[in-house]
Amino acid sequence: MNSIRVPVVEKILSANDQLAFQNRQFLKSKGVFSINMMASPGAGKTSFILQTIDGLKNRLKIGVIEGDTAAVTIDADKVSDAGVPAVQINTGGDCHLDAVMVAGGLQQLPLETIDLMIIENVGNLVCPAAFDLGTDINILIASVPEGDDKPYKYPAIYRGIDVLILNKMDLLPYIKFRPDYFKQGVEMLNPGLTTFPVSCVTGEGITDWLNWLENRVKKSHR
Question: What CATH code is carried by the domain that includes residue 127?
């Protein structure tokens, strides 16, 4: 079985990487800075995206692609209500977005009027790590309620990210979460990783994140 399955998997990933390269070049030609936002279900991706939109909507023009396993538009509707163009991608049950899906979503957005593209991947800590979407950076949103052992259990996704958001810091006093143990796990996999401890409830760390992101977008446009 392995001799049959491995080449097939390699072929799929190779094809995805080729289209991801095309996506990256296409976005660059349009002057769009893009981020692939990954997390487990319940980590707070949508709330964090809405906080980002609210903080930057007067400074940057933002677009959003929402990935979901079902044909529901709850998250996309929330983003649209915030005044930002959004496209919902139904993966048909697949546990991740891929470069093909993203390419289709990009065609439905007014890229000429967008500075920052946020792609909300499907809630999953395994599959999204293997599929390049063609974005400039990959971001993982972890959260205090998930526990401090996630870097040890899901090393692949922690190795492949450029920024880590540790969300729901307001719950730290109420949940058994060892920040030092969590940080140690992250550092073993991704030394010096840019990390923002935040809370979408209290606003902790949000300003630092917004300033960092705005600077990255502006640098990419030079």
Answer: 3.40.50.300
